[in-house]
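pasting for the record
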Amino acid sequence: MKTFKSTILSVAILFLFTLPVFSFQQGIEMDSELAKKQDRVKKLFSDISTVNLLNGLHLTDKQMKEILNLAKKAQNIKQEFLSNRGSGYLHVLDEAEEKFTRLFNEIMKGEPAREGSNIEREAVRINHRLKETQDRAVRTINNELAALDSELSNILTPEQEQVIDDFKPCLIPPKDLKNPVRAGQASSNDHAIKALRRVREIPEHIWDRRKYRLIANRIERFSKHRYAMSEEEKEEELQRLLSLFERARNMSDTDFELEKDKLAEELRPADKIHELREEIENRAPYKRRPKASKKVRFLLNERIIPILEERLKGIN
């Protein structure tokens, strides 16, 4: 009986000591699988968004073939860079890994790295070199891709270029993006036009009494869900919308139908977040990298190649 109990105890102890190891290893596998799944979902979103854009552009077969050729050129530019100059970047990465590991081991002793020590100096030096190498790589590739931008412009119509300029990655495209007659307007104006029509239909005595509250409520919704406005910005927006609504109300039916799209565009508040990002980017003292245009980013990425090839199957 004692032997049996000892055996059971030994098994229990073994189980308790091996359980954390098993759970830890399983956790690593799950994390790895999660990362892979996240990557697949991210790529699927990108592919769906790309197809939405292509559907909204209503490209001809000739345009698709020309864009496909340019996308392959762009892919070759990146591959040639990696083949010819990528080895230098890889060497810098190897050195950075070595220097950072030495610094990590030093500070793991419980004290910060000694100021002015070789380990610290070497880590700082390779960190600067790594940033410069990365910056140079991006700048070189984007400069070469920029040369394809003008070729894209020659392929696309001005209306199609406008679609791309207005386009934002999405799962479900705006209604107007599906309509070739409205190509060039990636954001639907239908909702804004309906709002303007409702304002025009409000009787004068009700409008005079409720206009400030109606506009203020609209501004509060926008401030809550899109862009947090200051009180000063809210007041400016109230006066702007009041002027816009009064203009719309005073128009004849004919004039309104002629001007409704323009009024709808005015109804949309300025994208302050986008403006702030652009201002920060332009003011940043370290801004050195030329950015690829939206046309290049959306139409000349490697993931568009199989999509266009699939669409061109069976076309002479």
